[in-house]
Write a structure and sequence with these properties.
This protein has one domain: Hotdog Thioesterase (Thiol Ester Dehydrase, Chain A), CATH 3.10.129.10. 17% of the residues lie in helices and 36% in strands. The chain has 6 helices and 12 strands. Strands 1, 2, 3, 4, 5, 6, 7, 8, 9, 10, 11 and 12 form a 12-stranded antiparallel sheet that branches.
């Protein structure tokens, strides 16, 4: 990124867009089903930390989309026109301020708050930070910070692995029972294996047109990946699942950071550990690699 590009990109700071959603319950119910269970009444009355990702989809015309499937950067987007080929969801955080329920309209305001360049081992990285503010019935319910990173891929360094058979299972998230920890907290372990039907369904539920999650030939030929990439938000949803449904207080905030990609058919391990009275740390690993770290803070 040149200095002139950097100056142009900073002009996007403060740019915002607004969207509304009827918050139909079917979307949350469908997400719970994809996660392998039914949505509870309490979850529909106050959506878990990242479940709002199945709402506030933007309508796209085909000409609005770039070669990677995403909305073209710049122009009508709050994201500046970074020319780097690869776009990744680097991480984010969600703070729950008030209940966000299905069945009542809500509004989301998205603001570009930061654009910065960092030097990486294989070249420049451009980080774009977006803030999402969701209100319902005139009350601020959620504040989310989303970090995107743009870069050109280095020569492929991913370990080869056997692609799953086309007639294989769709994928699943499985979690064990809550176990008592030695320090009075708890432990919980689980597994995630996402195959193409699960990835495609999650893309549809979250309105994510990024081709790395459903177009295998695009992944291999243009992005240098060995197979379809498991969504960072799907991994975050799996991490949050380790905290839900085990009799804990409401989650007041949740944050996550992507470390290394997971590909279709690979089996990942989920480990949750309560560090203290209110903090829960979660790690997702695959083949010995740390792929995501996350933490949840319990409210009250």
């Amino acid at each position: 990124m040149t200095d002139s590009q950097g100056a142009a990109y900073t002009e996007y700071i403060g740019r915002e867009e607004r969207s509304r959603d009827s918050m139909a319950p079917e979307s949350a119910i469908a997400l719970a089903a994809l996660l392998g269970r039914e949505a509870t009444g309490a979850e529909l009355a106050d959506l878990p930390a990242v479940w709002h990702w199945v709402y506030f989809h933007r309508a796209y015309r085909p000409g609005d989309l770039g070669p990677d499937g995403h909305l073209r950067r710049g122009e009508a987007s709050v994201v500046p026109p970074v020319p780097a080929r690869r776009r990744m969801y680097a991480g984010g955080s969600v703070t729950l301020l008030a209940p966000l329920s299905v069945g009542a309209p809500a509004e989301k305001t998205t603001i570009c708050t930061k654009v910065e360049r960092k030097a990486g081992r294989s070249g420049d990285l451009v980080f774009v930070t977006l803030e999402h503010r969701i209100t319902q019935d005139g009350e601020l319910a959620r504040v989310e910070e989303q970090s995107l990173v743009f870069f050109d891929p280095p020569p492929a360094t991913y370990r080869p692995f056997e692609l799953p058979p086309l007639d294989g299972e769709a994928g699943a998230i499985s979690l064990g029972a809550r176990e008592a920890g030695n320090d009075g907290g708890f432990l919980r372990h689980g597994r995630l294996q996402a195959r193409s039907p699960m990835l495609f369904t999650y893309s549809a539920l979250t309105g994510n047109p990024h081709k790395i999650h459903y177009d295998r030939s695009y992944c291999q030929q243009f992005e240098g990946y060995p197979g379809l990439v498991v969504h960072g938000p799907l991994l975050a949803s799996a991490a949050l699942e380790a905290v839900l449904g085990v009799g804990l207080p409401r989650v007041g905030s949740f944050e996550f950071r992507a470390r290394s990609p997971i590909f279709e058919g690979q089996e990942a391990e989920i480990r949750a550990r309560q560090d203290g009275d209110s903090r829960i740390s979660i790690e997702i690993t695959c083949g010995g690699d740390l792929c995501m770290t996350a933490s949840a803070m319990l409210a009250g």
